[in-house]
């Protein structure tokens, strides 16, 4: 728009009009009067009339001057106001940030060429003003946006829509058009204010891409992602909840009761406290975070441990709008921590059992020495005096005490291996009283001995430990009570005809699933809570049976009980007495030998009893109470053909002395006696090379049978060498 030409001042214009009027009126009157005079004489009155007329013309001119001057002044003020308005309009029209396009519509609704455009429109579209004024809206609106929205514009007088414009270079760019229609001379005029949306669309696309990346990350990440509003309402839940917990995220998102149900009751208050703590902030200069471990309930009833990291959701200006939670599955870590604690507790329990075993071993050693003295002297009395009922009662009581000590050694797990021929039925029968006491009144034990003579070669202490551990396992499987059936029978293998003794423990307890059954013989594996089991019971059973060449089979199912079936090889022997390792006959020796024996025993009462008994049966005895005393006798040249020594001595061990002697006399016969050997024997003699061992308390029959055996074997070896 151009500024209009300035008007002359109104006073000057009025003067000019008045002067022109006076000149014309005066001139007309003068010319008229001259004309009249030429036609005839003019009287004086006519002259005065002429002067009055001139005066009237003058007054009329002055009045006309005043009126014209006022009219022109008012017109000039209005013109200046219009001019100022036009200037302001031009400044607004051309000075705006948005392009403005003005055009009209014909009677058919077709747009005309632009009637007015601002400078910003020329700059953005890339046209000169003259070139752009030759264009129509259809030339630049590639999507024909105005035509689509023209009915709304004509109806409502304005419309807002988005479309694409094309500039002079042919490039398309998004715009938002705010079109307004006015009626001018019965012709619709359209004023379109156009806002370039290129930067907004780019920002929106960047935001959309960011949200898409976030959504893809949230939907595919294994971690659990969720958000909570300031009101404490769950507003988002990632799809990973389906994989992690088995719950449908849409269902869980709209079910507040289920949201609280999946969190363990003991963890819910702590979690809510941490979320509330973050929501107490309306603004935060620095984002605050909280961390907590919670256990969540899965749809299938199992639980999973989650480590939650909670952080503030902040809008620009650090306004806190909610809480973001990211949960990571730490089930494996928790399982490892649990396993570590379980192993630590098992180790502590094993250490406790080791301490109990050490105590039991020490007590059994001392008790066995006392019982050896008591039983040995009772046998000596019986050999030299008539039988007496009181003596028999004393002997029976001492033998029962010996059996109790042997059972005490089961808990120490330190009793040395000593394989003998035993009757399995008798071994089970002797343990029935102990098992009844352990199992309690709610469990009924039924024993069925179907095997005729189930004689096996075994360590009686270890077999008793197997029986004890299997009984305890059955008790744990029947916490509400039940029945334990123990049976034995002889079976013949169809493949090779070998005969085995079958021992079976069958309970009607809770049973085991396959995954537990596969691991029951692993050391330290247990299904009991921490501190209630070492996980060594069945692994010990497995190890003992393998040492005895036995086979072990387990059948179990949940709520169907458990059956342990053990196959032990039947021993080939002519033993006729149950529970003894050989038929030894009467203790007296028909042909006493002249052999001299070296006896090393630290317990004075046992040493005195053995010296008395061995001397009475024709042997020469040299007794010592310590290793130092024994070495002194040896250095003094005391003759002896065999060594009898206690395993545990105050200043060393009997096996240590035997090893020293056999370095000089490799074939020296020896007999070891012990109340509790521990590892002293295993540390000196490899398997298969250990000398005969007698456990205290032993009978005179066992003592002299073993002596006769080792001396006879030595004589046989000497004769072969000779």
What does this structure look like?
The radius of gyration is 61 Å and the shape is rod-shaped. The chain has 722 residues and is an alpha+beta fold. The strands form six sheets. It has a five-stranded antiparallel beta sheet. It has a five-stranded antiparallel beta sheet with strand order 7-6-10-9-8, sandwiched between helices. It has 22 helices and 24 strands. The relative contact order is 0.05. 48% of the residues lie in helices and 22% in strands.
Radius of gyration: 61 Å
| Derived structural class | alpha+beta
Q: Taking all residues together, what is the mean pLDDT? A: 78
Taken from the alpha-carbon principal axes, the silhouette is rod-shaped
The total count of helices amounts to 22
Q: Strands of the largest sheet, in order across it?
A: 2-1-5-4-3
**Main β sheet profile:** 5 strands, antiparallel
Strand share of the residues? 15-25%
Unreliable residue stretches: 573-593
């Amino acid at each position: 728009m151009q500024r209009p030409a300035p008007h002359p001042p109104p006073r000057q214009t009025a003067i000019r009009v008045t002067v022109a009027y006076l000149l014309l009126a005066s001139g007309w009157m003068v010319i008229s009067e001259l004309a009249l005079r030429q036609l005839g004489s003019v009287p004086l009155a006519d002259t005065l009339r002429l002067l009055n007329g001139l005066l009237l013309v003058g007054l009329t001119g002055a009045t006309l001057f005043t009126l014209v001057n006022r009219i022109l002044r008012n017109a000039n003020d209005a013109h200046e106001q219009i001019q100022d308005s036009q200037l302001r309009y031009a400044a607004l029209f051309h000075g705006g940030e948005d392009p403005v396009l003005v055009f009209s519509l014909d009677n058919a609704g077709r747009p005309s060429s632009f009637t007015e455009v601002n400078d910003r429109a020329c700059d953005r579209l890339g046209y000169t003003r003259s070139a752009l004024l030759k264009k129509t809206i259809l030339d630049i609106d590639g999507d024909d946006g105005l035509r689509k929205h023209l009915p709304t514009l004509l109806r409502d007088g304005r419309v807002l829509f988005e479309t694409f414009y094309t500039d002079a270079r042919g490039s398309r760019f998004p715009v938002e058009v705010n079109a307004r229609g006015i009626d001018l001379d019965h012709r619709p005029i359209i004023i379109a204010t156009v806002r370039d949306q290129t930067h907004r669309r780019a920002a929106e696309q960047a935001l959309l891409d960011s949200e898409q990346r976030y959504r893809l990350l949230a939907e595919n990440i294994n971690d659990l992602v969720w958000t909570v509003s300031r009101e404490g309402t769950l507003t988002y839940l990632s799809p990973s909840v389906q994989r992690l917990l088995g719950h449908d995220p849409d269902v869980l998102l709209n079910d507040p009761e289920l949201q609280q149900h999946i969190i363990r009751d003991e963890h819910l208050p702590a979690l809510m406290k941490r979320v509330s703590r973050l929501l107490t902030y309306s603004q935060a200069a620095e984002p605050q975070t909280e961390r907590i471990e919670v256990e969540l309930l899965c749809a299938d009833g199992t639980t999973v441990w989650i480590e939650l990291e909670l952080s503030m959701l902040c809008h620009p200006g650090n306004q806190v709008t909610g809480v973001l939670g990211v949960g990571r599955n730490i089930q494996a870590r928790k399982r490892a921590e649990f396993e570590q604690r379980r192993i630590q507790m098992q180790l502590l329990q094993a250490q406790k059992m080791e301490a109990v075993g050490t105590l039991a071993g020490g007590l059994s050693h001392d008790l066995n020495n006392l019982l050896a003295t008591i039983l040995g002297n009772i046998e000596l009395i019986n050999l030299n005096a008539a039988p007496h009922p009181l003596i028999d009662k004393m002997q029976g009581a001492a033998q029962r005490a010996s059996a109790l000590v042997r059972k005490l050694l089961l808990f120490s797990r330190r009793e040395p291996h000593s394989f003998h021929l035993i009757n399995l039925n008798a071994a089970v029968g002797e343990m029935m009283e102990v098992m009844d006491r352990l199992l309690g009144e709610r469990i009924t034990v039924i024993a069925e001995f179907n095997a005729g003579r189930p004689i096996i070669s075994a360590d009686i202490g270890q077999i008793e430990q197997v029986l004890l551990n299997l009984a305890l396992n059955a008790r744990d499987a029947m916490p509400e009570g039940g029945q334990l059936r123990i049976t034995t029978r002889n079976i013949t293998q169809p493949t090779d005809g070998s005969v085995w003794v079958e021992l079976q423990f069958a309970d009607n307890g809770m049973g085991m699933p396959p995954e537990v059954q596969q691991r029951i013989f692993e050391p330290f594996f247990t299904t009991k809570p921490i501190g209630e089991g070492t996980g060594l019971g069945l692994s010990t059973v497995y190890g003992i049976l393998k040492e005895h060449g036995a086979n072990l089979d387990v059948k179990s199912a949940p709520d169907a009980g458990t059956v342990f079936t053990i196959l032990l090889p039947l021993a080939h022997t002519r033993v006729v007495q149950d529970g003894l390792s050989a038929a030894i006959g009467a203790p007296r020796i028909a042909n006493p030998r002249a052999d001299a024996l070296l006896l090393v025993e630290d317990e004075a009462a046992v040493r005195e009893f053995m010296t008395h008994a061995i001397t009475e049966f024709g042997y020469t005895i040299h007794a010592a109470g310590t290793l130092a005393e024994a070495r002194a006798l040896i250095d003094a040249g005391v003759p002896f053909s065999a060594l009898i020594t206690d395993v545990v001595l105050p200043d060393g061990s009997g096996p240590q002395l035997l090893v020293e002697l056999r370095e000089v006399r490799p074939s020296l016969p020896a007999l070891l006696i012990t109340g509790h050997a521990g590892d002293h024997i295993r540390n000196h003699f490899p398997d298969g090379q250990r000398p005969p061992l007698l456990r205290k308390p032993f009978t005179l029959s066992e003592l002299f049978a073993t002596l006769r055996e080792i001396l006879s074997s030595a004589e046989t070896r000497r004769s072969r060498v000779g």
